[in-house]
TrEMBL record:
Entry binding sites for CTP: 100, 110, 127-130, 146, 164, 168
Natural source organism: Saccharothrix xinjiangensis
UniProt-recorded name of the protein: Coenzyme A biosynthesis bifunctional protein CoaBC
Residue span relative to the full protein: 188 to 412 of 412
Ranges where the DNA/pantothenate metabolism flavoprotein C-terminal domain occurs: 6-221
Molecular-function GO term, any one: phosphopantothenoylcysteine decarboxylase activity
Lyase found in the keyword field: yes
Record's cofactor remark: Binds 1 FMN per subunit.
């Protein structure tokens, strides 16, 4: 049986990939299946937390028992849902793959292919939700980010993760390598858990629930409640 060491805490996890609409039928998206975020939510609920799961686009996944599911589409919707849930959250985990950019304009009607060369799609920057949650963090609130890094082996991936932890200012950062069939969509994951205090825990390759357990172990043992 799992320890009930998250009892009394409100945990908010984002999962899946945002979809940034171009017109009523098209969007810019990414490959996130939501499996990693759902595993984090499921394990937290099993360990006694009250869980809010903010899900952008995901594969067809079962809602973890006991979790409150909030469905969102775009980064802006994810942002609003995270800020609303953050009011009562003890822990915020950003496992969602958030689009960094969105189309400037949302066409009211389906864009026609016409008979001339296509127009380029103008993009604008989305807000950095993780950075906003860090900036708005209350005393005692714990903020966990993810870093999805491509690169050539440990030096690149971990190095980028360390830099991202400093830049984003979160308390914990899970670094996972992506690309070449890693992390996105698959059942397993691997990486490192970095703490703002400088601790670095390698997370061996295994089911996404295993990575989730490493994260919750660290949070449960480092924060009293
Ligand atoms: O969903 P799965 O198929 O199971 O795959 C899991 C995963 C690979 C998507 C997951 O483990 C993961 O790495 N999630 C974060 C993906 C991501 O967007 O990484 P990033 O390095 O681009 O962003 C860094 C952090 O900032 C993330 O916590 C992200 O949620 C957050 N972010 C990014 C952009 C933005 N505009 N706002 C954000 O809050």
């Amino acid at each position: 049986a799992l320890p009930r060491d998250l009892e009394g805490r409100h945990v908010v996890v984002s999962a899946g990939g945002t979809r940034e609409p171009l017109d009523p039928v098209r969007y810019l998206g990414n490959r996130s299946s939501g499996k990693q975020g759902y595993a984090l939510a499921r394990v937290a609920a099993q360990r006694g937390a009250r869980v809010t799961l903010v899900a952008a686009h995901t594969a067809d996944l079962a809602t973890p028992a006991g979790a409150d599911l909030v469905r969102v589409g775009s980064a802006e919707e994810l942002r609003a849902a995270m800020h609303a849930a953050a009011k009562t959250a003890d822990v915020l985990v950003m496992a969602a793959a958030v689009a960094d950019f969105r189309p400037v304009a949302l066409a009211e009607h389906k864009i026609k292919k016409g008979d001339r060369d296509p127009d380029p799609v103008a993009l604008t920057r989305n807000p950095d939700i993780l950075a906003e949650l860090v900036a708005a963090r209350r005393a005692g609130q714990v903020v966990v980010g993810f870093a999805a890094e491509t690169g050539d082996g440990e030096t690149d991936v971990l190095g980028h993760g360390r830099a991202k932890l400093k830049r984003k200012g979160c308390d914990w950062l899970v670094v996972n390598a992506v690309g070449d069939g890693k992390a996105f969509e698959v059942e397993d994951n691997a990486g490192w858990l970095l703490s703002s205090g400088g601790a670095e825990t390698p997370i061996p390759h295994g089911p996404k629930a295993k990575l989730a357990s490493v994260v919750w172990d660290a949070i449960a043992s480092s924060t009293e409640h």
